[in-house]
Amino acid sequence: MRSRVWGSTAAVVLGGLLATGCGGGTDKTSDENAGRAVTGGYPVSVTDCAGAGTTFSGAPRKIVTSNASGLELLLRLGAGDRVVGTGFPPGKGTLPAALDAQAQQVKVLGRSVIPKEKLLGSGADLYIDTFASMGGMGGSGMGDAPTAEEFEAAGIKHIYLKSTACAAHGDAPVTDLSAVEADITSLGAVTGTRAKATELVAGMKKKVDAVHEAIGGTPEGKRPTYFFFDYDAGTKQPTVTCNRQIANAVITLAGARNVFADCDGDYRQVGWEDVIAKNPDWIQLGVRDRGGEEANDKAFDEAERWLRSNPATKGLKAVRIGHFLRIGSERTTIASVANADTVEAIAKTLYPGEVG
User: Fold this and answer.
1) What integer best gives the mean pLDDT of the chain?
2) Backbone φ, ψ for residue 12 (5° rounding)
């Protein structure tokens, strides 16, 4: 569930609020329609990373999401009853009770990437994709990703969450959650749930602002260094979160210093010697949701045990003194209202007594 798996070959540059896989329109038309979205009416147009637009004359009725990120946002926006299928479904208990009950009722079209035939035959009129390319379909044995022409023939508009889809090719480090907030705002416009989108964004800002007020004045040199250990990406060669990834913003807003903030892009594979050279003060055990609290705890235990037993990492400062944070990957690296909760959780751990 990440852009490095199947998005690395996509050539994208920053554009509008959401990225789209089909549709047309000039930049001027897109901008005008985007203005209408803010004031509350249709048509609503959203642009891709290169500025091409897709226009909605009304709210979509049947939506498929590529993974739990898009599904969660739609549930929080109050548009969950329109979701007819998802890939990478959230594990039971991952979301708050009311949302979890809804999430478990959504048809699972794929435990990982949705097979092409299932996606095109889903009856959806909108597909929300978290990443810039679905090239991983071909490598997964489930067929090729649908082309823009195939999406159009099936009557499916294809848009992306831009905070991840365009992240790798951004022109500046990501140090705030504005791209995530823009995704939420734009989804609210597309689905006709603008008021709820505004409420969600305001709630995120309130939490992040409270953290900033408490520890924002901490000098850069006194902020602890922080390593996001992507355990599920493999331990032979670590995959690190760079400065274009949402995790970089989460870590920065929480008052820490991402030890790989000097890496331009979203993800990169490095050597353990590079991690050792950084010698982080804190390590987040970033494991993906396993579908339940017991299974998640077991995964966190495995990740910690690996760091403590591996000759290359057992001498790291954070490992020696037990400075571990057990916070899942999804809420840290993929667009979510919970990104703000993660900022708060990290800050509370790193600055005990200072963050309420």
Assistant:
1) 86
2) -135, 155
Instruction: Could you please state the CATH topology (level 3) that the domain comprising 3-192 is classified under.
Output: Rossmann fold (3.40.50)
How far apart are the two ends of the chain, measured CA to CA in Å?
Answer: 32
Report pLDDT digits (tens) over 154-163: 999 999 899 9
Q: Which residues in the chain show pLDDT less than 70?
A: 1-40, 132-143
3-192 and 217-350, same CATH topology: yes
Count Cβ neighbours within 10 Å for each residue of 146-160 and write b for 16 or more, e otherwise: beeebbeebebbbbb
By the 8 A CB rule, do 226 and 325 touch? no
Judge whether 203 and 343 are in contact, CB under 8 Å. no
DSSP characters over 340-354: HHHHHHHHHHHSTTT
Q: How far apart are CA 307 and CA 282, in angstroms?
A: 12
Is this model's pTM higher than 0.70 or not?
Answer: yes
Nearest to 80 by CA among 108, 102, 111, 57: 102
The CATH number of 217-350 is which of 2.170.270.10, 2.60.40.1730, 3.20.20.10, 3.40.50.1980? 3.40.50.1980
At residue 170, the pLDDT reads 81
In DSSP terms, which residues pair with 129 in a beta bridge? Answer: 160
In the prediction, which pLDDT does 45 show? 93
> How do residues 195-241 score in pLDDT, each as one tens digit?
999 999 999 999 999 999 999 999 999 999 999 999 999 999 999 99
Alpha-carbon distance values, 156 to 51, 106, 193, 330 (Å): 20, 19, 20, 26
Domains of the chain, by residue range, sit at 3-192, 217-350
Residue 35, pLDDT score: 35
CB 82 within 8 A of CB 60: yes
